[in-house]
Fold:
Amino acid sequence: MEIQKILFPQVGRCTDREMYFRLEKSGFGSNQMLFYDNEKQTILFRTGEKVWFDTYFNGFSIEKWKKYTILGHLTLRLELAGKFKVILLSKEKVNNEIYEKIICAATIETKMQQVCEFTYADGNEKGMYTFGLEALSDNSVFYGGAYCSEIAKDAVRDIKIGIGICTFRREAFVRKNLKILRESILENKRSPLYGHMEVFIADNGRTLEAGELLTPQIHLYPNRNVGGAGGFTRDLIEILEHNDLFQITHILLMDDDIVIEPESLVKTFMLLCLLREEYLDAFVGGAMLRLDRQYIQVEAGAVWDAGCLDPLKMNLDLRQCEACLYNETEEFSEYNAWWYCCFPMQIVTSDNLPLPIFIRGDDLEYGLRNMKHLILMNGICVWHEPFENKYSSYLEYYIIRNLLIDNAFHYPEYDAKKLNHALFKHCIQEIMFYRYKNIDLYFQGIKDFLKGPEWLMRQDGEALHQQVMAAGYQAVSLDELDMRFNYPTYCRSFEIQHTKRSKIKRNLTFNGLFLPAKGESIVQMASPKTVQFYRKKRVMHYDAATKKAFITKRSVRASIKYIIRTIGMLLLVSLRLKKAQEKYRAEGKKLRTLAFWKRYLGV
Structure:
């Protein structure tokens, strides 16, 4: 049984070769891999050349496979022509050391393309199993291969995955990913997933044309614009109510604006087919990798810690074997984001649906509520635009409101003292950024939480979202602004440094608020620093990804007003937070029922 295919770089997915294999040359000055045929996906060797596959996509996570599945003895099946030395290895990271063991070394010579098998007979089943190839003659060719295991047919579980996608006006991404799914899986009879997967799309923008997308395995549901929570829940409801027809065993929630590697889906499927009895309720998570630098891992699981979000294994360079081995180390994790999150359909019941919190925190709350085990594995991932390239002012409202909702259910120790500390710090920072509208949104998020779950049940999520969006800063094209964009000025803003003396001066003058203003500045929209605003009259908040911006202006009067309002909000929180939390714990479960959701969605 083929467990994991050996992958090659591919245009349209990922072309960073060291994510797939690494070259070790001897006797040649150049380090360019001119012998790799991208179209045929083969590697042509000269004598003495070595290639190693201890990489993100082609290492085998043996320790996790053995822990979570009924995997038997592992073999390596390779298609070769020529003369090779084949080296089977195990690699493990312990503390800061990497331990490597050669399990098997064999010499193979064949004039024609031939399938050869090797067994990992005496490995320690820790960390990663991998292999290397050394050419012993010119024009030796590697055509591909797979890790395999003999498993009785009656021991393999019958799995069918339902991919749930929520989209809002991202037609190009959806069409591209559906094309990949059709070609690689849905219409590919050679795929292990053929006949074991269906796709459900909640179209919140109601802009997708059914005629060009639908097949017997792709289902489209025009939906109200009620955010990711509403879209993904619509997918869950459609499967839940018609599963006698679909026979879905596992749901895989996946973002619409990602690039996918189809073998991530196949690997997920193989894991589920072979799960041990004690892990049948496990979630399978996909890591998020950067879309611009495809070898950088942004997150692989996360810890919530009452709002102090801690992404695990952040910023790893997956071209490095050490980073891949670090990924093999399991850590405590509380949830996996819905850019790629797979869980058993049996979790989805008429009284166990997500909360209607639109965006930011829906995946978190559902994971905290339901996840007992999270399986993360090298090679199961998606590529996504990095978050620092995304900024929306209106999210201020959702972030604080949903944090309070999530904590009401899952962290009752989050009291007024903790909230007030975060509130004061955040609002003072926004005052220093002159982003007064953000403070209004933040305050409104807290006030709406304090109204309790009954208020949330009565809301028209689509109408509320329009109000929230209108209340924030609107980024526009640069030619619509009355301030000139200058790229060197923007770049210089990154070079402004804190000194001990300047920090004291800024603190004493409230970042220069009580000194005469002078000059203008241009800063990064998503992550500005207070030092960049020191004594500035106006500041352009620029988004390099969209080439759009908005402007904020310094106002001493507005700053004093918002300081006073912040003090008032601290008092309101002290008086009303505990009561609102108790209401959510007592009555908030109604928000996750099928009856509520059908009314909310108008289904």
Summary: The chain is about 30% helix and 25% strand. Residues 416 and 577 are 6 Å apart (CA to CA). The first strand starts at residue 2 and ends at 5.
